[in-house]
Design goal:
By secondary structure, the protein is an alpha/beta fold. Helix content is 45%, strand content 18%. The longest helix is centred in the first third of the chain and has 21 residues.
């Protein structure tokens, strides 16, 4: 072989090597990173959270992330442990609905130390821990409570006797709701609170028990403020047994299928419907965007609220054809 031929062969070999190196031929393609988002629920037994979880799952599928879901079952100490376990698994982000505004601060702090962003949804941390909270998706519950209390005051025309049935006293949003209610009551001196007690739990049975106690002690009432739709279902039974159903305004919150049925019957006047399926899907969009792009997210994202009454409950139920997982669809 001549020197010229050898040089030509060598040159071709170099060009082939360069082409292979630049094209990546012969090397296994690098798989894209799968991001994992941990979910810390307060209580999945509540329809509010079940609909939210379905939204999380829909968002995860749409935005290409994996979910690891935990549930504290109403136990703040277990929720702390659940968050710690998600930190140990080195998830890329954590979404939490805090059951206790103060008890979870150390867990948030630990996540921040591990450089894991923590998103609060529906409930936020106490002020002392908010520096560890990446973002809050929801509404301050005292503001939501004030809005529905104002509606009740207008329905009562600013006067009369009202009974108040709250959720368990240890729950953060119940405490915030109380603050919003009392703020509005100070502006309505013509309305007298004749009964105000906390339920042991958010159940129909507790609503019935407390409403019976309230109506026995105060047979003449002009309005009812109830923490949520499950309690309101029990209140409705007590009102029906005394012939008061549909005769006094009753306001509640959640927007469950049961609540919508009570509105359709004219027993429940108004409920603040919380489309938590949509909240969950949107929260995953925000969290996935942060872990994938590292771009900053808003510190506060106000969630959608819907005031459901007899005038619009039919149209809201009609939307169940396209979004069957909303809490009021009962799926």
């Amino acid at each position: 072989m001549t020197k010229r031929v050898c040089a030509t062969v060598a040159a071709v070999a170099v060009l082939v090597a360069i082409a292979l190196a630049t094209s990546g031929a012969g090397a296994a393609p690098k798989a894209p990173k799968t991001f994992t988002i941990g979910i810390s629920h307060y209580a999945l037994v509540i329809p509010f959270y079940r609909a939210m979880q379905t939204g999380f799952q829909a968002g995860a599928k749409r935005y290409g992330v994996k979910l690891v879901t935990t549930d504290s079952g109403f136990d703040p100490s277990k929720q702390v442990s659940n968050i710690q376990s998600l930190i140990a698994r080195k998830v890329d982000a954590i979404v939490v609905s805090p059951g206790d505004a103060s008890a979870l601060i150390p867990a948030y702090k630990a996540a921040a130390a591990a450089k894991i962003p923590v998103f609060s949804i529906a409930n936020h941390l106490a002020p002392a821990g908010r520096k560890y909270e990446t973002s809050f998706y929801g509404r301050p519950w005292d503001q939501v409570s004030a809005l529905r209390t104002e509606r009740l005051a207008r329905l009562m025309k600013g006067k009369g006797n009202v009974i108040v049935i709250r959720g368990p006293s240890g729950i953060a949003f119940v405490q915030e709701d109380k603050a919003g209610f009392e703020r509005v009551m100070k502006k309505n001196p013509g309305i007298k609170v004749v009964f105000a007690q906390n339920a042991k739990d958010l159940s129909v049975g507790e609503g019935l028990r407390l409403a019976q106690d309230a109506l026995t002690a105060n047979p003449k009432i002009d309005g009812v403020w109830v923490e949520n739709d499950d309690l309101a279902a029990g209140v409705a039974r007590a009102l029906e047994s005394r012939g008061l159903a549909g005769k006094v305004p009753v306001v509640s919150m959640d927007g469950t299928a049961q609540g919508f049925q009570l509105i359709s019957k004219g027993i429940l006047t108004l409920t603040v419907a919380l489309p938590t399926y949509s909240w969950g899907a949107d929260q995953i969009r925000i969290a996935a965007g942060l872990v994938k792009t590292k771009k900053a997210v808003p510190k506060y994202v106000p969630s959608q609220l819907i005031f459901a009454t007899k005038a619009n409950v039919g149209s809201l139920l009609a939307q169940c054809k396209s979004t069957p997982a909303q809490v009021w669809c009962g799926k």
